[in-house]
Amino acid sequence: MLTASLVRRTYYLLTAGNTLAGSLIWGINTIFLLDAGLSNLAAFAANACFTAGMVLFEVPTGVVADLWGRRVSFLLGTVTLAGTTGLYVWLWRLHAPFWSWAVVSLLLGLGFTFFSGAVEAWLVDALAATGSTEPWRRCSPAGRSSAGSRCSPDPSPAATWPN
Q: How many CB atoms neighbour CB 126 within 10 A?
Protein backbone atom coordinates (compact mmCIF):
# COMPACT_ATOMS: atom_id res chain seq x y z
CA MET A 1 0.00 0.00 0.00
CA LEU A 2 1.29 3.44 -0.93
CA THR A 3 1.68 5.66 2.11
CA ALA A 4 3.02 9.19 2.52
CA SER A 5 5.85 7.75 4.62
CA LEU A 6 6.87 5.35 1.83
CA VAL A 7 6.69 8.18 -0.72
CA ARG A 8 8.97 10.35 1.44
CA ARG A 9 11.48 7.53 1.97
CA THR A 10 11.55 6.76 -1.76
CA TYR A 11 12.00 10.43 -2.59
CA TYR A 12 14.85 10.77 -0.10
CA LEU A 13 16.51 7.64 -1.47
CA LEU A 14 16.32 8.89 -5.06
CA THR A 15 17.54 12.35 -4.08
CA ALA A 16 20.35 11.02 -1.87
CA GLY A 17 21.52 8.65 -4.60
CA ASN A 18 21.60 11.41 -7.18
CA THR A 19 23.37 13.79 -4.79
CA LEU A 20 25.91 11.15 -3.75
CA ALA A 21 26.64 10.23 -7.36
CA GLY A 22 27.11 13.88 -8.29
CA SER A 23 29.34 14.51 -5.29
CA LEU A 24 31.55 11.54 -6.05
CA ILE A 25 31.73 12.34 -9.75
CA TRP A 26 32.54 16.02 -9.42
CA GLY A 27 34.91 15.45 -6.52
CA ILE A 28 37.28 13.55 -8.81
CA ASN A 29 36.24 14.72 -12.28
CA THR A 30 38.97 17.32 -12.74
CA ILE A 31 41.64 14.81 -11.69
CA PHE A 32 40.11 12.30 -14.10
CA LEU A 33 40.19 14.81 -16.97
CA LEU A 34 43.80 15.74 -16.20
CA ASP A 35 44.74 12.05 -16.21
CA ALA A 36 43.03 11.79 -19.62
CA GLY A 37 45.54 14.27 -20.99
CA LEU A 38 43.62 17.54 -20.79
CA SER A 39 45.31 20.70 -19.58
CA ASN A 40 43.99 22.54 -16.52
CA LEU A 41 42.22 25.03 -18.79
CA ALA A 42 40.67 22.29 -20.94
CA ALA A 43 39.54 20.30 -17.87
CA PHE A 44 37.78 23.31 -16.40
CA ALA A 45 36.32 24.20 -19.79
CA ALA A 46 34.92 20.65 -20.07
CA ASN A 47 33.33 21.11 -16.63
CA ALA A 48 31.89 24.42 -17.84
CA CYS A 49 30.38 22.58 -20.83
CA PHE A 50 28.54 20.32 -18.39
CA THR A 51 27.08 23.38 -16.67
CA ALA A 52 26.16 24.89 -20.03
CA GLY A 53 24.41 21.64 -20.94
CA MET A 54 22.34 21.84 -17.77
CA VAL A 55 21.32 25.40 -18.62
CA LEU A 56 20.57 24.64 -22.28
CA PHE A 57 18.56 21.47 -21.69
CA GLU A 58 16.58 22.34 -18.54
CA VAL A 59 13.48 23.62 -20.33
CA PRO A 60 13.44 21.10 -23.22
CA THR A 61 13.71 18.14 -20.83
CA GLY A 62 10.89 19.63 -18.75
CA VAL A 63 8.77 19.61 -21.90
CA VAL A 64 9.62 15.93 -22.41
CA ALA A 65 8.45 15.19 -18.85
CA ASP A 66 5.26 17.17 -19.37
CA LEU A 67 4.42 15.59 -22.73
CA TRP A 68 5.51 11.98 -22.23
CA GLY A 69 5.55 11.68 -18.46
CA ARG A 70 7.97 11.65 -15.58
CA ARG A 71 8.77 7.96 -15.96
CA VAL A 72 9.94 8.50 -19.54
CA SER A 73 12.00 11.50 -18.45
CA PHE A 74 13.58 9.54 -15.60
CA LEU A 75 14.38 6.59 -17.89
CA LEU A 76 15.83 8.88 -20.58
CA GLY A 77 18.02 10.46 -17.91
CA THR A 78 19.21 7.04 -16.79
CA VAL A 79 20.00 5.91 -20.34
CA THR A 80 21.70 9.22 -21.20
CA LEU A 81 23.85 9.16 -18.06
CA ALA A 82 24.78 5.51 -18.57
CA GLY A 83 25.76 6.16 -22.18
CA THR A 84 27.72 9.33 -21.48
CA THR A 85 29.50 7.71 -18.54
CA GLY A 86 30.58 4.93 -20.88
CA LEU A 87 31.75 7.54 -23.39
CA TYR A 88 33.68 9.29 -20.61
CA VAL A 89 35.63 6.11 -19.88
CA TRP A 90 36.21 5.51 -23.59
CA LEU A 91 37.48 9.08 -24.10
CA TRP A 92 39.81 8.61 -21.14
CA ARG A 93 41.26 5.44 -22.67
CA LEU A 94 41.78 7.24 -26.00
CA HIS A 95 43.21 10.41 -24.42
CA ALA A 96 40.69 12.12 -26.67
CA PRO A 97 40.87 15.77 -27.78
CA PHE A 98 39.08 18.53 -25.91
CA TRP A 99 36.19 18.93 -28.35
CA SER A 100 35.03 15.35 -27.66
CA TRP A 101 35.10 16.00 -23.90
CA ALA A 102 33.11 19.18 -24.46
CA VAL A 103 30.38 17.33 -26.40
CA VAL A 104 30.12 14.48 -23.90
CA SER A 105 30.06 16.95 -21.00
CA LEU A 106 27.14 18.78 -22.64
CA LEU A 107 25.36 15.43 -22.97
CA LEU A 108 26.04 14.67 -19.29
CA GLY A 109 24.26 17.94 -18.52
CA LEU A 110 21.36 16.68 -20.64
CA GLY A 111 21.20 13.47 -18.63
CA PHE A 112 21.06 15.29 -15.31
CA THR A 113 18.33 17.68 -16.49
CA PHE A 114 16.02 14.77 -17.30
CA PHE A 115 15.90 14.09 -13.55
CA SER A 116 15.60 17.65 -12.21
CA GLY A 117 11.87 18.24 -12.38
CA ALA A 118 10.67 14.69 -12.87
CA VAL A 119 11.40 13.53 -9.33
CA GLU A 120 9.84 16.57 -7.66
CA ALA A 121 6.74 16.31 -9.84
CA TRP A 122 6.50 12.61 -8.95
CA LEU A 123 6.67 13.59 -5.27
CA VAL A 124 3.70 15.94 -5.60
CA ASP A 125 1.61 13.36 -7.48
CA ALA A 126 2.56 10.49 -5.16
CA LEU A 127 1.76 12.47 -2.01
CA ALA A 128 -1.59 13.47 -3.52
CA ALA A 129 -2.32 9.81 -4.36
CA THR A 130 -1.85 8.88 -0.70
CA GLY A 131 -4.35 11.52 0.37
CA SER A 132 -1.64 13.36 2.26
CA THR A 133 -2.33 16.97 3.11
CA GLU A 134 1.23 17.73 4.10
CA PRO A 135 2.88 20.57 2.17
CA TRP A 136 5.04 19.12 -0.60
CA ARG A 137 7.41 22.09 -0.46
CA ARG A 138 8.71 20.81 2.86
CA CYS A 139 9.99 17.68 1.10
CA SER A 140 11.45 19.36 -1.96
CA PRO A 141 15.03 20.67 -2.12
CA ALA A 142 13.82 24.27 -1.93
CA GLY A 143 11.73 23.48 1.13
CA ARG A 144 14.58 21.61 2.81
CA SER A 145 17.00 24.47 2.28
CA SER A 146 14.89 26.79 4.38
CA ALA A 147 12.98 24.43 6.61
CA GLY A 148 15.25 21.56 7.56
CA SER A 149 15.60 18.12 6.08
CA ARG A 150 12.32 16.44 6.99
CA CYS A 151 8.92 16.44 5.35
CA SER A 152 6.80 17.81 8.14
CA PRO A 153 3.80 20.07 8.38
CA ASP A 154 4.56 23.75 8.15
CA PRO A 155 2.42 25.76 10.55
CA SER A 156 2.59 28.87 8.39
CA PRO A 157 -0.45 29.66 6.23
CA ALA A 158 1.84 30.18 3.21
CA ALA A 159 2.76 26.47 3.13
CA THR A 160 -0.45 25.03 1.73
CA TRP A 161 -1.01 22.10 -0.59
CA PRO A 162 -0.91 23.25 -4.24
CA ASN A 163 -4.27 23.14 -6.00
A: 19
